[in-house]
Prior knowledge:
The structure is a homodimer.
Chain A: E1 2-10, E2 18-26, E3 29-34, E4 45-48, E5 53-56, E6 58-63, H1 79-91, H2 96-112, E7 115-120, H3 125-135, E8 138-142, H4 152-160, E9 168-171, E10 173-174, H5 182-195, E11 199-203, H6 207-217, H7 221-227, E12 235-239, H8 245-254, E13 257-260, H9 262-267, H10 275-280, E14 284-287, H11 300-314, H12 323-337, E15 354-357, H13 370-377, E16 383-388, E17 391-395, E18 398-399, H14 405-421
Parallel strand pairs in A: 1-4, 1-5, 6-7, 7-8, 8-9, 10-11, 11-12, 12-13, 13-14
Antiparallel strand pairs in A: 1-2, 2-3, 5-15, 15-16, 16-17, 17-18
Helix pairs in contact in A: 2-3, 2-14, 11-12, 12-13
Amino acid sequence: MIRLYNGKVLALNGDTEIEDKELWIQDSMILYAGPPQTDHPAFDREIDLRGDLVMPGFKNAHAHSAMTFLRSFADDLPLQTWLYDKVFPLEAKLTPDDVYALTKLAILEYLAGGITAAFDMYYKRDAFCQAAIDCGFRMVLNGALAKWDDWSVGEMDTIKYNMLHPLISYIPGIHAEYTASLELLMFMGELVHEHKKPFFTHNSETAKEVEECIERYGLTPTALYEEYGLFDYGGGGFHCTHLSSDDMDIFRRRGLWAVTCPASNAKLASGIAPVAEMMRRGINLAIGTDGPASNNALNMFREMYLVTVLQKIREKDAAVCDAARVLEMACSGGARAMGLPDCDCIAAGKTADLVALDLHRPNMYPVHNTVKNIVYSGSNDNVRMTMVNGKILYEDGVFHVGESAEDIYARAQAVTDRLCRG
Amino acid sequence: MIRLYNGKVLALNGDTEIEDKELWIQDSMILYAGPPQTDHPAFDREIDLRGDLVMPGFKNAHAHSAMTFLRSFADDLPLQTWLYDKVFPLEAKLTPDDVYALTKLAILEYLAGGITAAFDMYYKRDAFCQAAIDCGFRMVLNGALAKWDDWSVGEMDTIKYNMLHPLISYIPGIHAEYTASLELLMFMGELVHEHKKPFFTHNSETAKEVEECIERYGLTPTALYEEYGLFDYGGGGFHCTHLSSDDMDIFRRRGLWAVTCPASNAKLASGIAPVAEMMRRGINLAIGTDGPASNNALNMFREMYLVTVLQKIREKDAAVCDAARVLEMACSGGARAMGLPDCDCIAAGKTADLVALDLHRPNMYPVHNTVKNIVYSGSNDNVRMTMVNGKILYEDGVFHVGESAEDIYARAQAVTDRLCRG
């Protein structure tokens, strides 16, 4: 059992209060979260937090982790050009071993930034699951079927990846409307009904995507999915940059999750999502980095800051998009969007997916409001420790993922060299 | 003499090439930058860079460092409300000792983020100079006169702070047009002519500032300053969020520096400066964080990222605002704007104001383009060492500024508690 003591806890259990508490972690579970107790069991390890803060880990609610190989490779291109001319041809060359090595690199970046789970849409699923399992990292897979795929995979994967390992789960989905067909939507409708599962996909990422969908079907992507019953068991959309008022009504009514990806949307010039408007309408929100090819970092501090300040620009109002709500989106919101209700807050009985933030750094002083300090000033150098499923995977700058960081870097670099320069 | 060897150097001496070089630092100067030599003098310390990167330090070309006491205190308000209702009343209570303590906190944050100099506009100048001198940090003061000040101070300070200490220099200026009078502008005109000095001020930060100036004088702030001869010896403006085409012509013709502050402009909903347009027009550019009350971090990685992605949003074009140019703005551009031509690049004879970036972190892999990795993915946890004037002030997470970080934190917190809750 691990004891974390002499620290503060931001539980995110319905509010953003910070309290002096200690935590006991037994296997994967938080056994106790409360005031120090004199009568306690024997601990395997006791960590003195020295006044630092423990909170739920960040959840990266939209990612293509293995795309690390394209970081800083094809920047400064519009989305469609970037996707069809640069990304797809190189992705076609990826082997499962490549995906394994590239995903491990992304996992190191997640851990260094306090991210404890990713909602990942990618191919060679066995390989990236194995990378997560070998590192001890939590991964939720999204289906990402396209019209040219063998759709029966979606059926099999829904069963297989929800039974594979405690760190792995699966939510059905398609890649996007523009890589789908009506037949695929019908197939997905049957699949979500049969398995009573939510449905996620890239949704309204660019204005072009929405316009072309309306040309094709007379409906926005959101209305199209609704029409085909894909949201009958919930779900949501990645990006949601260009939702209409009617789309937002569907999101609100269905309790869908809009996963905003502000850095990617900005860098690819896709636009600024109507996050503040969605907040006012009570729509469920989470935050994703998107893939490292379009961001280029996998850094939730950056995303949280962008969520807030881009809304202030979008609405020309410095008062919109409160920092506390944004922190909840990044931690608890992501967990609920990803079907991980046990990872959403810090309380006895919850899963121990958490991060310890070093408050003894210049960007955390003075202490007027620690939540605002985290959202408006936080940085990777505040991450002291990252724990997934009760295991410490990152601590004081060092990774504990079963393989050395240097070996992971070297393997990812070799794969990249072969793919991009071979 | 300090030797930095076994590393890479991004000299920023006219290009963004990265070369295998070693550096010898003698006192405050780079004595040698080139291939390893077998015949060399005795070194006091040899630092094995293990393949990491040395580059010129970031220059924070617009700051109000002592405003750390307002971090996370009055967020989410529009600029004028924020300034008149929150900032000015509390600032009136500041003592020199307060400014000293609060500036030291900002300096720690600068060093942790690889920033080696700040262009600072604040009051109680003796106190914040002393903080810089005691820490070994480089500070360029900006005049910041307002109509209610004793203007003779501007005359005396121009002489005094340019002779005080090698780490300190002074450039005349006013706070802003909306806190000035025509008499003050006339006075400043005489001052810059007499001392042949450049002139800097907050310029066109908000649309309101520009509109009210036009109402008062029939001129934009830039045209007004030009009319009064304030740019006859160069200079520039902080923010430059709302420059007209004619304003940009003046900037171009005069060789003025536009110091963009993207985080502050976004957070206060002031807008997005026309940085890409200024680049196309060949206007000199540098980057500032503004004060910690409006940002809230003092982090050049964040600013660089925001400069690039906000331009992509502003122009709806993912191809604008090249990362290499942005890195030059943050390092060399800032140095030249601040009158520090010896701190602009890494070469023999230049001043040793530099930063070592840890490339052995997940966000720096794979290596397609290290410059893009720094601008699009870099974070404070990549800062391995920060050197100012030949002295190592930050290394491996530890500060070497003559006082412990914990003592600086405690003093800044005590000052803040007295000011904001006293």
